[in-house]
Amino acid sequence: MPQFSRRRAIVAGSVTVLGVGAGCLGSSSDSDDGPTDAVTADSEIAYPEFVDDNATYDEPMIEYENRDVQFSLYAMASDDADADTPQVQRDLDTNGLAAFIAPEYGDDESLSYHVFATEQFVDYADWNVIFTDDDEYIEDEPATFDELAHGVYYLMVTPRSEGSITAISNTDADTPPADDPESVSVGIMKGDAPESDESVPRVRFITHGDHSDDTRSYEITHDGGDELEGDYVYGLIDDDRIENPFDSDPVTEGDSASFDDLSEGTEISIVYDDGKTSDELVSVSVD
User: Fold this and answer.
1) pTM for the structure as a whole
2) Are residues 125 and 210 in the same domain?
3) Residue 9, pLDDT score
4) Residues 157 and 55 in one domain
């Protein structure tokens, strides 16, 4: 995920950003307007039930057997946006901004993304689909949603390349979310699947950055998943190590680490190291 300044972002963290590929939807009873059987009467996306293989979803990560790829969903809103951070979730029976993105591999191995959203999300902005390649914004197109079923709206997106991120945003490729103080986006990140290591905790983090003309600060918050033993956690500000910046043991959901008086370009990381395994859980570049 590109590094966003002055924003609230939901980031998937665990060794690397986790999730893995999803599967073929060809066996579902898709109509010309989208997979209507993907939406229950309660406006919930029946995922992974509406794909025909062994996909699993552990918010915000999608895991899929027999593929060496990974997918992770995210949502963000800049501090100046007149909206709360949208939610990425299967339950779309809500009055808020919410969406869910499901990857699909076709019989020819081509990749597409099924985007489901609430009416409130669709009506919030003139959305664009932004495509990236190696974290460079390369192209955008209008995001045209159609009503699918039970108040859920639908859009299918075909990635332009094997780039890591496709986003639904109220900005465009000429003014990507990182440069717009009022940007709101949901997106999906694609990468290589890490080797499974049950000894490494699976954790989600929220990162929130703020800056004035002279100073910058960042806060990283445990937003769910496994507890972290405090003695095994440290932060890095560039090459400077800070033992357990959360100042909590264990580190659990809601605990935050704050980093102040930062300079532009500073790299912040949270690392897990139990003496046997050392992995970066989340990293942020200060803009």
Assistant:
1) 0.62
2) no
3) 39
4) yes
Say whether both 209 and 81 belong to one domain.
no
The answer to whether residue 198 is domain-embedded is: no
Domain co-membership, 274 together with 150: no
Last residue of a domain, one of 192, 214, 238: 192
* Residues 41 and 153 reside in one and the same domain: yes
Same domain, 31 and 66: yes
Would the CA dihedral through 120, 125, 129, 134 be positive or negative?
negative
Q: Are 185 and 219 contained in the same domain? A: no
Least confident of 34-38, 76-80, 111-115: 76-80
- The per-residue pLDDT for range 172-219, each reduced to its tens digit, is 878 777 677 788 899 998 876 655 555 678 888 888 877 766 778 888
Query: For 145-155, how does the pLDDT look when each residue is reduced to its tens digit (9 = 90+)?
Result: 999 999 999 99
